Amino acid sequence: MAKKIQIFDTTLRDGEQVPGCQLKTEEKIVIARELELLGVDVIEAGFPISSPGDFLSVVEISKAVKKVTVCGLTRAKKDDIDVAAEALRHAHRGRIHTGIGSSDVHIKHKFKSTRQQVLEQGAWAVAYAKSKGYEVEFFAEDAGRADLTFLSQLIEAVIAAGADVVNIPDTTGYCLPNLYGKRIKHLVENVKNIDQAIISVHCHNDLGLATANTISGLINGARQAEVTINGIGERAGNTSLEEVAMILQVHRDLELTTNIKSEKIYAISKLVSGMMRMPVQANKAIVGANAFAHSSGIHQDGFLKHAENYEIINPAQVGVPSSSIVLTARSGRAALKHRMELLGHKYEGEELNTLYENFLLVADEKKEVKDEDLQVLAANLPVLVR
Ligand code: KIV
Ligand code: ZN
Fold this sequence. Notes:
Blueprint: E1 3-4, E2 6-9, H1 25-38, E3 42-46, H2 52-64, E4 69-75, H3 78-87, E5 94-101, H4 104-109, H5 115-130, E6 135-141, H6 148-160, E7 165-170, H7 177-190, E8 198-203, H8 210-219, E9 224-227, H9 241-250, E10 256-257, H10 265-276, E11 293-294, H11 297-305, E12 324-325, H12 333-342, H13 349-365, H14 371-379
Parallel strand pairs: 1-10, 2-3, 2-9, 3-4, 4-5, 5-6, 6-7, 7-8, 8-9, 11-12
Helix pairs in contact: 1-2, 1-10, 2-3, 5-6, 6-7, 7-8, 11-12, 13-14
The structure holds 3-methyl-2-oxobutanoic acid and zinc ion.
């Protein structure tokens, strides 16, 4: 039977950390409501101690949503945890996400501490957060570069202290998919109390591997994925929600499912991009302007014969209105004929050949031949059949 993957959305925390993407509380509430309708399980609403604005956002999002868990980020510090607990007081279901660096580079150069001290502080923070009566998730920051034996000891200690979820972030986007998957597998097989917690994967995209690493983690036993809409996040971003949801939908053989209502993906992608003033790159998987656009002659011909020749997802599955045929100098007769027919002009044989030659002259001049250009071409061609 298929296993359920929890979707933990951190668009409003890790995503909102991006310079220029800051949102007002009212805007965050709009996005949080849409995330709830989209079907995410957890919304990380902010880092309450970081600013009065973030505190307020966590309070107001806690009031605004009812079905999802609302999460607030903290460091492994008493004040952070106290403030997060206060911010979450209206949450129908609240979660404190606390943690500390777990790699030697973080332990030495960020905390000037030792593995033992980090382990004790992590376990203490979890127990303290737990005493506030919320669910507790522990993050082992930079787990992707941590010593695996130490990481296993740390995870065992925080689970013993009460962690409900253990997050194994590849904070710097360093890991390769097979090695990240191996880390998760190692924890599953070597942490003796691992069955008492859910393993979460949180991957950054510094090498363009965030989604691949997330999927590898899920295949190897993680049951929660931390993601953002459009993959926004620190530096090169986080794993994108739309990619994970659609990979699991397309590859049913993995037997991993989510509650995401995929037909809502395109609308929320546009909403987040607009509110955050963060354009989506045209070739972005699933939600980019070219994700369902066909421009070369060979592809257009194959697509027009049978969409599945070149599309593994029907655009309607993710709420994209339709596929598109883009006419450029690389387009062929089939696409030109098709587009002309949509405009009410029917061409065959020699007439189509002449039209195509004229079309190429225009296409060489312009990056994309638009409907207006086609109308001009049609008007300047002797018409046999209409
Ligand atoms: O990337 C990271 O390690 C994080 C943690 C705070 C969870 O965002
Ligand atoms: Zn992160």
